[in-house]
């Protein structure tokens, strides 16, 4: 008897994240400096932790409703209204989830069916494709490498027309992981104008929205196309709350009525104490990300200068906390081999670009969600490595 043969065959299309695989593969190297994961080095602000403690002391240890606490959904509605000019009814257009990852799972499993296709600008965060594959749908990548990782309306429309009736959705992640690219108001309006012509869902992963470094701030596509857009967000990056696992879905009421079905049977409801912390984060802590942004910008600019001196080509990121750099000519363009050698010889760990799909090969991703002294030492070691292997 071999019951392993009876698992969902779509699992054969899925691997454990290459990001996690590589990070674990170098973890045992003595003294390794890891600029790998999207994990803010900041701690959750004290006032948010105190709100969670108060909820525990008040015995708030029972289930909330499936949609989450109404007070949290109201806080979320007020937050996106003030920050991004988005209007959602907390009663029936917002769901509280266990992180943005569950929000994505609930959304994609609800809207996709066997044989559907989903467009995704690439290189891209590798967490979307496994969910899509699990339901028997297919990711179709749009190569943005020749356009500084920016999706244009022309590229988008061409890709939509090529897919025909099988196209069900487009996933847009910005500010983007791994490139840090984001979009201006004019660019968003132009993309929305294309999408509006087609009967497809738009899933916008905006979890880095509070870490936007342009003067205009983040512009959500849902401002222009609310009737087609499902917005995914959360508190992991904006409030350094990765371990709290608190995410949000914003969508039209008719969509939410369907999304809550997949959400309910995945998780029932998000952690109650974390939800009370989330209320504090989105009200008293609505601008908590500002202090983090100051440090992120300093780190970004330092890395850009140092890596440019070493010959890396980098498109300046305007959001998130990643540098996505082209490996200079004369060095191995196999990103896994290049970084495995760097880790073994200099105890510096970055993420291979190939972990973000075929269009990421030849690049490396560096996370600057790490302390400045760690970044400085890591870049010193990188410089030594590059000079020794020139």
UniProtKB/TrEMBL annotation:
Its cofactor is pyridoxal 5'-phosphate. The keyword Manganese does not apply. Residues 32-382 form the Aminotransferase class I/classII large domain. Keywords: Aminotransferase, Pyridoxal phosphate, Transferase. It comes from the Bacteria. PROSITE patterns: AA_TRANSFER_CLASS_1. GO terms for molecular function: transaminase activity. Its EC number is 2.6.1.-. InterPro entries: Aminotransferase_I/II_large, AspAT/PAT-like, NHTrfase_class1_PyrdxlP-BS, PyrdxlP-dep_Trfase, PyrdxlP-dep_Trfase_major, PyrdxlP-dep_Trfase_small. NCBIfam families: PRK07309.1. Belongs to the class-I pyridoxal-phosphate-dependent aminotransferase family. This is Aminotransferase.
């Amino acid at each position: 008897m071999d019951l392993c043969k009876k698992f969902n065959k779509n699992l054969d299309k899925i691997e454990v994240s290459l990001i996690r695989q590589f990070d674990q593969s170098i973890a045992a190297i003595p003294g390794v400096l890891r600029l790998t994961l999207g994990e803010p080095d900041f701690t959750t602000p004290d006032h948010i932790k105190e709100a969670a403690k108060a909820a525990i002391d008040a015995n708030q240890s029972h289930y909330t409703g499936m949609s989450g606490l109404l007070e949290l959904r109201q806080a979320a509605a007020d937050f996106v209204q003030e920050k991004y000019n988005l209007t959602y009814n907390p009663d029936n257009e917002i769901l509280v989830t266990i992180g943005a990852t569950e929000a994505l799972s609930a959304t994609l499993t609800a809207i996709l069916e066997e044989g559907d296709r989903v467009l995704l600008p690439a290189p891209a965060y590798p967490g979307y494709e496994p969910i899509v594959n699990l339901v028997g749908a297919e990711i179709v990548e749009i190569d943005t490498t020749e356009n500084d990782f920016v999706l244009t309306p022309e590229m988008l429309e061409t890709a939509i027309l090529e897919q025909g009736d099988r196209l069900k959705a487009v996933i847009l992640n910005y500010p983007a992981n791994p490139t840090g690219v984001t979009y201006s108001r004019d660019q968003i309006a132009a993309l929305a104008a294309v999408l509006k012509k087609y009967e497809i869902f738009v899933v916008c992963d905006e979890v880095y929205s509070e870490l936007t470094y342009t003067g205009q701030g983040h512009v959500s596509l849902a401002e222009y196309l609310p009737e087609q857009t499902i917005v995914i967000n959360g508190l992991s990056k904006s409030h350094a709350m990765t371990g709290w696992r608190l995410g949000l879905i914003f969508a039209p009421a008719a969509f939410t009525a369907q999304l809550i079905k997949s959400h309910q049977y995945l998780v029932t409801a998000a952690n109650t104490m974390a939800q009370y912390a989330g209320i504090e984060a989105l009200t008293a802590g609505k601008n908590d990300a500002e202090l983090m942004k100051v440090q992120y910008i300093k780190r970004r600019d330092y890395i850009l200068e140092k890596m440019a001196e070493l010959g890396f080509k980098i498109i300046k990121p305007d959001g998130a906390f990643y540098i996505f750099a082209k490996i200079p000519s004369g060095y191995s363009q196999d990103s896994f081999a290049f970084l495995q050698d760097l880790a073994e010889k200099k105890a510096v760990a970055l993420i291979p670009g190939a972990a973000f799909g075929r269009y990421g090969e030849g690049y490396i991703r560096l996370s600057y969600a790490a302390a400045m002294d760690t970044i400085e030492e890591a870049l010193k070691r990188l410089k030594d490595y590059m000079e020794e292997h020139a």
